[in-house]
Design brief:
With 585 residues, the protein is mainly beta. It is built from ten helices and 30 strands. Strands 12, 13, 14, 15, 16, 17, 18 and 19 form an eight-stranded mixed beta sheet that branches. Helix 6 packs antiparallel against helix 8. The relative contact order is 0.14.
Length: 585
């Protein structure tokens, strides 16, 4: 079943690709004119969705900082189409793109304008508005600076939005000992949890805010309880470094704020258990986080978004005195009974043989439940190498993934566990050794996520969005539930609400564009096609039926099960996206 470029253009123009013969219609979020890619994060029961955009078009440029505080003109000036125009703030498509690529290429440069690669938008299928996190409106630009990476993770009725954000980037002029002024630019805090209420952003503070602290908000329930995690203590190295920054003779010839930034600087990402993780590694964690203890945290909010109380959940074990490494519990979701789920470290290590790699020792992570002030391990440890709880519904069904070996290779596998009955489900994916990642569960006991569809030995396999019904035990490829003329390859189902509406990430072919959003025209006067990831909304069609599509046998990558079909490849850059939320309200 080949899809044509013309069909894709028509469908994008109309904004919907529904068909009467399908059970779901597909509508892209209105963000394709905003950024090169956009990734779905959540959908609430009001149908409001969160999507993170990447490579946003038309960011504001501070030419003065570009000229005075970077090496841009020395490095690239002679390659510009018109250097004089650029110095006067006039940019061609090519030069504008060169500027933005330069600024994005070195985010840790000590001076010069900063541009965030990712920002979040709240959207329905018609309109979208930015979720700025801790960003501020600039007098110079008359808009947000776009210097702050804001990741929205969950929403309630479209009004309350929770997530995490880097600090606002400040311009800190400093006269050094030589009498020269250095215009330092840096975020004024580490990653902070936030709630946006009626357009106003408020910080959800970490328990320990040494060196500004660290926190992430992952989910919000109807009782305004926000689940996430935050720093609760630091090893002595961190407060000692902060103290040194306060002493002029010790911090060196830099301002206090710039010195403090060196303490909390670093990117944070939570790996799924399909990725290797060691709690001594800086691959996912900033240095100061490696010197901290992080606990699952539940912030209780009032109707205005102010924090009434904060509760943290301890580690699963008591570290020995000689164990000085980084340990944590993380909460990823919370239901309306106030029960949160997530994961925690056990303090032990486990040897894991991942695809096409030698077996290595990794930190042992296990699925956990947080309730009544206690941290409780969810699954029998001896049955799994690792486990991770991702989402919980109001029926107390918990879903997530376990890591188990098949033929000596460890891949993730879906689990569903009922807290009340202790019933456990471990369904196969599209084939026995398929890797499966659960992202969310709704109150209709439907789980969504992504699963391998190609039984190769490759490290990264082709994937498709799936739906698993706990009650009927059906495991379906969502690509089989949409129209045969659908041009969106559904790679991952990210979230599902109680109306069974789904937000998913899909791949389409679009024209390559400049940072202005204008098409790139090659030397032959033609546009070029590139892969793009976009968030789409899947809406149930009343009385719809599954449509039988004709697919050549040589394009079927696996033995078909039920209504399952597809042959979709996940983009490398999409697979590299930080683990951000997949939560049900």
């Amino acid at each position: 079943m080949k899809r044509t470029q013309l069909a894709a253009a028509v469908l994008l123009a109309t904004g919907s690709v529904s068909a009467f013969a399908a059970t779901y219609s597909v509508t892209p979020l209105p963000l394709q004119d905003t950024a090169r890619n956009n990734f779905g994060r959540s959908i609430d029961d009001a149908g409001q969705m969160l999507s993170v955009v990447q490579l946003e078009y038309n960011p504001p440029i501070d030419v003065e900082q570009l000229e005075n505080d970077t090496t841009f003109f020395a490095d690239i000036g002679e390659n510009l189409e018109n250097e004089d125009d650029v110095r006067n703030g006039i940019f061609s498509d090519v030069d504008y793109t060169a500027i933005v690529n330069f600024l994005l290429s070195s985010p840790n440069r000590i001076t010069g304008q900063k541009i965030a690669e990712f920002r979040t938008f709240k959207a329905d299928t018609q309109d979208a508005s930015v979720v700025p996190g801790l960003d501020q409106v600039s007098e110079e630009f008359g808009e947000f600076t776009r210097s702050v990476e804001s990741i929205g993770r969950d929403s309630l009725n479209g009004n309350f939005v929770v997530g995490d954000s880097t600090g606002f980037v400040v311009l800190d002029p400093y006269e050094n000992e030589n009498g020269d002024t250095v215009n330092y630019t840096y975020p004024e805090s580490g990653q902070q949890a936030f709630v946006q209420v009626s357009g106003e952003t408020k910080i959800l503070p970490p328990v320990d805010d040494t060196a500004t602290g660290f926190a992430s908000a992952r989910a919000i329930n109807s009782n305004l309880q926000v689940a996430g995690f935050s720093t609760v203590s630091f090893q002595d190295d961190v407060p000692n470094a902060v103290e040194s920054c306060g002493v002029e003779e010790e911090r060196g010839d830099v301002p206090f704020g710039r010195c403090l930034f060196t303490v909390y600087n670093g990117d944070f990402a939570v790996p799924r258990i399909s990725q290797a993780f060691a709690n001594t590694s800086t691959n996912f964690l900033p240095g100061y986080v490696l010197l901290s203890e992080i606990n699952a945290t539940v912030w209780q909010l009032d109707a205005t978004g102010d924090v009434i109380s904060t509760e943290t959940y301890p580690l699963l074990f008591e570290p020995e005195e000689e164990q000085t490494g980084h340990f944590y519990t993380y909460a990823y979701d919370i239901n309306n009974q106030g029960i949160a789920v997530g994961e925690g470290l056990t303090g032990d290590a486990v040897r894991v043989a991942r695809p096409n790699a030698q077996a290595l020792l990794e930190s042992e992570r296990v699925a956990t439940v947080f309730r009544d002030g206690e941290t409780v391990e969810l699954l029998p440890r001896d049955e799994n190498l690792l486990s991770q709880a991702i989402s919980i519904n109001d029926n107390n069904w918990v879903t997530g993934a376990v890591l188990r070996e098949t033929s000596g290779v460890a891949r993730s596998r879906l689990f569903a566990y009922n807290l009340d009955t202790q019933e456990q489900r471990y369904p196969d994916g599209f084939f026995r050794s398929a890797g499966v990642t659960a992202n969310a569960i709704n109150n209709n006991n439907i789980v969504v996520g992504l699963a391998d569809i190609d039984a190769t030995s490759d490290t990264q396999r082709e994937t498709a969005a799936f739906m698993y019904n706990i009650d009927t035990e059906e495991f379906l490829d969502l690509n089989a539930l949409v129209s045969c003329d659908n041009t969106f390859e559904l790679l991952e189902a990210v979230d599902i609400n109680d109306n069974n509406e789904i937000i998913a990430n899909a791949r389409i072919r679009t024209t390559s564009k400049y940072v202005t959003g204008n098409d790139i025209i090659n030397d032959a006067g033609e546009t070029e096609e590139v892969n793009t990831i976009v968030a789409v909304k899947l809406s149930p069609i009343p009385n719809g039926e599954v449509e039988e599509c004709e697919v050549p046998e040589d394009e079927l990558p696996y033995e078909r099960q039920g209504a399952s079909t597809g042959w979709y490849a996940l983009l490398g850059m999409f697979g590299a996206m930080l683990f951000r939320r997949r939560i049900k309200k």
